Amino acid sequence: MSSKLLPIASLPVAPPHLRLQNNLTSDPLLPSPRKLQDVQRDCPSVQRRARILPGNSHFSHISPLPIPFPFRIQVPDEQKDADGQWIEGWLSEREATERVQKASNDGDLELWKAKIPHEGPAQLLALSKACLRDCFPNLDVGDAFDLLGEPKLSPSSRAQEEEPAPHSVRDELTSILGGQSVLANLSEDPNLAYSPWSLRYCGHQFGTWAGQLGDGRAISILETPNTSPNEEGQIWELQLKGAGRTPFSRTADGLAVLRSSIREVLCSEAMHALGIPTSRCLSLVGLPEVPVERERTETAAICSRVAPSFIRIGNFEACNGPNHVFLFGAGGKLEKGWEGMRKLTEWTKRLLGVQSTLDMVKEVAKRNMRMCAAWQAYGFMHGVMNTDNISVLGLTIDYGPYAFMDIYDPNHICNHTDQEGRYSYRLQPTMIIFAIRALKEAISPLVGAEVECNAPVSEGWAEGADEEKIEQWKEKGMEAMKDIELESMKIFETEHWALMRKRLGLKEQVSSDPDKIVRPFLDLMDTHTMDFHSTFRALGDFRPSAPQSVLDRLVGSSCSLQARHAWQAWLEMYSERLEQEGCTDAERQARIRGANPRFVLRQWVLEEVIKRAQEDAEGSRQLLMKLLEMASNPFRPWGAEDGPEDEQLEEEVREERRFCEVGNREFLGIQCSCSS
User: What count of other Cβ atoms lies within 10 Å of the Cβ of residue 361?
Assistant: First the structure.
């Protein structure tokens, strides 16, 4: 594959057989890109109205439109008694129905814009070099990094400098990633036709069936192959979060605020750098003139998410939800989508590289338990583990009121909406099991039918099957999947203890480690309210021949004699365990520092960068880029870790050191809301 750099509008589209819209079923009201544009011209409100889709539908073609909602339409007096056509015309002028020139003529997609530009400018605020390198090595971003400036924490006078002149490649990138321009091909040929889309899914929210949910503000705009030699065959889906209303927005506005968008961009890249399976983020684009009403009026932003797929457990629940639940305003009792279930299963099996549906469920469970083991090992709390937020690929997705552990507290709840602690740190593995059970419930009839015929089901597999037959298939399916939870917990424990050994600098697997080393270590942190991450990293300086220095760092001068004795006893056990491995102090320090982050994306760090960005978004570009760099390289010894005192350091290095600190105690354990 060519290594030529291409502007975003000229990136290749995935081959037809690897495109979601060629394999799954679209919304019958918007069945094709051509029909989508017809609707945009004639009756554009159709694509923005919340509605329930048929059971077999997986997605709806939709075009980004990040403008305030309710729409701020000033209807002329002479049109107020009309039949709504004036309003449809107002919307149509803001839909992307005008073909415009691309920065390059390469590629199969065309670039479209609205007759009337969207409200205000789109401002490129951040671009992840790591995501660009890993996922889009052939993407030309023009002079974007010149615009963003040198990554820097300390205050800069750059805001007063002249910005780079307009650049077609960078402007095209910002326009597309900011929802101002749209990529599409309106061909009648299904192998060429292409347009953005949003997924339909359902889910259990805080344990209760919530009916149809779907991508209420996320719109996928492209699937493109990775051109790196070691990633050949990998397809990346590019999705805009906060791109405007979709049929799944219900009463919401389809927008995202700058605050939550900053949180998602930074955490996605931080999680990847820690080795935790996650979706990625390529960019952050601010929309400073688009107001968003939350607890207070804020400004909008769009972050571009990246993953092989955003299919989640809720997609399967949409095909076969609970039988005895009726929800007013959420679709009532949703119709079954048995053919939709078959198509979705075939698509997901290909994504996971498995042959049977039973193996697919096992793989989904295995991947999610491994992901959760990494969450627990690195003190990450998701906050909203609803089944519609659990990826079938075992990726961390949908970053909301998340947090990384500060003072170690296994019962910590990071989401202040979660009053009962359903999604507390301690219960996260249990909640993954709940999601796996939801997947089993939804897909059990299909698994049972395959068990019965000892082969994959074919098109129309459930036609003519009555409720009794479906129930028989369900029972057979549940029987076939009965051991998955137990197997999943074993996978979790194996992965979790392996990661904890790694964080403690232990190479060899010893069966007594969990009970003799790891659990007592965690208990000591809990009992003596110690910081989770800095305590792990401090062990890198431990020397069995001179334990006193690390003991002083761990307990300090203010701790009780009891705490000092307890830590001294644990360090003696730890020292004995290290002697079994026979490595040098330097080797062990390198291992520990390579597994325990120097920089942690703490709540106080997020609050500071958000405050500065809200005050001056463009002026915060260098800060955002530096935090992206630190989040993408968390194990580096930022801030001259072993260097001199603060006053001997340059200002930027002092700031690095400050951003690696635990921070003010008022931010320790702070809870966030779901408002975003």
Answer: 27
506, 581 contact by CB (below 8 A): yes
Using CA atoms, how far apart are residues 275 and 61, in angstroms rounded to an integer?
34
140, 388, 398, 406: the active-site residue: 388
Neighbours of 150 (CB within 10 A): 13
Strand partners, 235: 225
Q: Contact 302/243 with Cβ under 8 angstroms? A: yes
Residue with tokens 């232990």: 506
- Output the CA torsion sign for 392, 398, 400, 405: positive
Residues 204, 205, 211, 216, CA torsion sign: negative
Q: What are phi and psi of 534, to 5 degrees?
A: -70, -30
Instruction: Give the Cα separation of 502 and 505 in Å (integer).
Output: 5
Place of tokens 């990246």: 306
pTM of the entire predicted model: 0.96
CA-based radius of gyration for the chain? 26
Tens of pLDDT, residues 169-207: 999 999 999 999 999 999 999 999 999 999 999 999 999
Checking phi first, is residue 19 left (phi over 0); if not, alpha (psi -120 to 50) or beta? Answer: beta
388 is catalytic: yes
Cα separations in angstroms, 230 against 137, 147, 307: 12, 31, 17
What is the number of other CB atoms lying within 10 angstroms of the CB of residue 557? 5
Could you tell me which of 590, 563, 656, 58 has the C-alpha nearest to residue 317? 58
